[in-house]
Amino acid sequence: MDVDPLLLTVIAYIILGAVAGVIGGLLGLGGGIIIVPALLYLFIQQGFSAEIQMHLAVATSLATIIFTSISSAWAHHRHGAVYWRIVAFLVPGIITGCILGAIIANHLRSESLRITFGVFELLVAMQIGFGIKPPGQRDLPGNAGMVLAGGGIGTLSTILGIGGGTLTVPFLLWCNVNIRNAVATSAACGLPIAVAGTLSFIVTGWNNTALPAGSTGYIYWPAALAILVASIMTAPLGARLAHILPVTVLKRIFALVLAIVGIRMLV
Fold it and tell me: Where along the chain do its domains lie?
């Protein structure tokens, strides 16, 4: 019996969301690092225009992070771990950086975005695999420095389609913020990154004639909604497994998988 290709694609989106949710809850990683390369593969299989495949993957990934970041930030807030003052100082730069990142991504070829993400994936694999954490070297910078840091985080996060945790946490650790508070504060910063990045990609991709049906700008909603629902449902499972499974071993295995994916993205 023939199976509807559209149904298979939706199932693939749901599986992707479920995996991203479990990994996020288990290892404390944002979904973008998993979602972007998987979406790229699925968009290629769906025959979307090669010119915008990575743009769609990055933007759609950011859209899925909006609601998952709300859940994560609220959970950390309930434990009193979020430094909201730091968030307030970073947000202006983050929003500006997200707008800039979407403009830059819009002018980059899909291949350039793919290579950029592949390099980033390899760097994250090294960081996770070797447990690299920058030692505290200084205090938090002044207002201008915080805005500048937020701008860099927002720009790179938007170009890469991630919530910024792999950028924000090392910055805060470098500024002598406790690891628990750094992770929690980074989670809170994920919301403005996701919202500003998503809106910026909607605007920059609005008039692109290569967009597939079901898109608003570069956001492909069938994928975004399926991934979002599945990831929200499975994230609590990942959090529970974190108390049962050997997380250190799993992180090394996941780092190897990320390295393979990164090399594949480059090749």
Answer: 5-266
